[in-house]
Amino acid sequence: MGEGTLMDVVRYWLAVMLLVAIPTAILYWLLIHPFARFWRRLGVARAYGAVGAMLVPVMAGLFLCRDRLLGHSWGTNRLLAALGIVCLAGAGWLHRWLFRDLPLRVLVGIPELSAAPGKGTLITTGIYGTIRHPRYLQMDLALLGYVLIANYPAAYLLYLLWLAGIRLVVAVEERELAARFGEEYRRYRERVPRFIPRRRR
């Protein structure tokens, strides 16, 4: 298998991953946050079972229609691929910093589905003392890296969908956090920016 052919295969499967993952991830969080009270009544296991049952057909449908949805490729662009690798390195650095402060159970949304919504801790230290949503910023960078390497027109459109969708998710999530943590979260929101750190004087 030649280098060009191997790279084409890698780019194709990256594009397929983006096609399946991006709409599903946005839909997942839009199913969780606005309906948190309903899911809490069901309990964590039933909630994940119900959400999974809704998402699996979506993922399967996107995968089965992958060639039609992806259209054509713009080929391998070494400069874009290099920029993509830089984005992935930045995402990897953020990932390491992020997981010092963010337990896995928080990442997958277990506190939102907990039967005791008043419990939990608002994380405001570490990277969360600099920006409010580092995990979404890390995902922005990682997905951009994959999109640049894949270099499919549909991948760029999917990335725009991600940027718009995840900002909607953030707005809904912040409303839910304000309901859970009240004044503590409102003060935190005023003090710490969403994505871009403020310059320190």
Automatic annotation (TrEMBL):
It is found in: Endomembrane system. Pfam families: PEMT. The keyword Zinc does not apply. Its main location: membrane. The chain crosses the membrane at residues 12-32, 44-64, 79-99, 141-162. It is a multi-pass membrane protein. Keywords: Membrane, Transmembrane, Transmembrane helix. It comes from the Bacteria. InterPro entries: Phopholipid_MeTrfase. The keyword Zinc does not apply. This is Isoprenylcysteine carboxylmethyltransferase family protein.
